[in-house]
Amino acid sequence: MNAVFKSLYHHAVQKKVLLWITLLSAVILFFYSFGVTETFVQEHPKVLYVTSTSKLNGAELNSPRTNGYTISSVKSKDDGFRNIFGDESNFDKLDTISTKGNLSISNNLFDINSTDVIVDLHIQKTSGSAFGRHLVHDLKLVSKCKGLSKKIHRCLRPVGQDEGWLFSRFTTGWMCGVHAGWTSLTECVPEFYQDFDLKRRYFYITVLREPIARYLSELGHVQRGATWDQFNFICNHTKQPLDLCWNKDAENWSNVTLQ
């Protein structure tokens, strides 16, 4: 088995030249995710009730608890904000929305001024922590994220709403469990926001890594003593619906092997 491990490790070393390509791909994935088609946008629920307004003062906006919610036509002077969340023409298009019923926003761009939420699906050992820190520290936004502690930040919308637009370990903590996957997040996140009684769209983003290198990195992580004791798998409103394939009572997993 050691020979197998050495062979895999040697294979991973050879692929280190692809690391920068992988990181570049992650950046491209991040920016592309804001323009994904409706196939990759989860709407909850399907029917959106939208009213349009040209008043930019937050106090003038329709109440989000009334019969719908407001998508403001705010035009930011911050080019960085436009580059990430859509250019000026995209904001202009939102002015034309003033209807009720089955509604599909034509450009499917994330709108920070509405009730859209970005959900960071953090896969372990993919530089996800560094990526998450960039989201709360380095985006050029009208309303900067504010640190409440070293690991928790508030990223509020720029139009006076006391509500965050980002769901991640650095804004809400591990609310759905440590490194929650797609199944757990798609069930847990809407329940987290249900108290606000708003119609929302959730934009899921993640960072990918070459799978063998990622697996070996995870193996090294647990060989140093890490465990999955805080992992919760949620499906059909049930935690841990499947039997665990590891010893949950072990104090740590130091020196674990591929066997």
Automatic annotation (TrEMBL):
GO terms for molecular function: heparan sulfate 6-sulfotransferase activity. It comes from the Eukaryota. It is found in: Membrane. It is a single-pass membrane protein; Single-pass type II membrane protein. It catalyses: alpha-D-glucosaminyl-[heparan sulfate](n) + 3'-phosphoadenylyl sulfate = 6-sulfo-alpha-D-glucosaminyl-[heparan sulfate](n) + adenosine 3',5'-bisphosphate + H(+). Pfam families: Sulfotransfer_2. The keyword Cytoplasm does not apply. It comes from Ciona savignyi (Pacific transparent sea squirt). The chain crosses the membrane at residues 17-35. Its main location: membrane. It is an enzyme of class 2 (transferase). Belongs to the sulfotransferase 6 family. Keywords: Glycoprotein, Membrane, Signal-anchor, Transferase, Transmembrane, Transmembrane helix. Its EC number is 2.8.2.-. This is Heparan-sulfate 6-O-sulfotransferase. GO terms for cellular component: membrane. 6-O-sulfation enzyme which catalyzes the transfer of sulfate from 3'-phosphoadenosine 5'-phosphosulfate (PAPS) to position 6 of the N-sulfoglucosamine residue (GlcNS) of heparan sulfate.
